[in-house]
Design a protein that fits this description.
alpha+beta, Ribosomal Protein S8, Chain: A, domain 1, 4-stranded mixed β-sheet
């Protein structure tokens, strides 16, 4: 199963809020969604702030999947 994916590599921190919010609402019928944040803890935190604000159910990647967030439900 291929997940609908948003890759934030190359995006700036100030762009993350709008990009993530648009992505999850435009693709909410395709859950689960994959957001690739990379190894930046700041980027992961920014993504999680958006997901918490809109009330999403999500999982942070651990171990081999560190730097990713899977959105289960919006």
């Amino acid at each position: 199963m291929k997940l609908t994916t948003l890759d934030l590599h190359g995006k700036r921190h100030h762009e993350v809020d709008l990009i993530v919010e648009n992505f999850i609402f435009l693709n909410q019928d395709d859950c689960p969604l994959l957001i690739i944040c990379g190894n930046s803890q700041k980027m992961i935190s920014l993504v999680i702030q958006v997901l918490d604000r809109v009330g999403s159910n999500y999982e942070e990647g651990k171990g081999h999947n560190y730097g990713t967030v899977i959105v289960r439900q919006i």
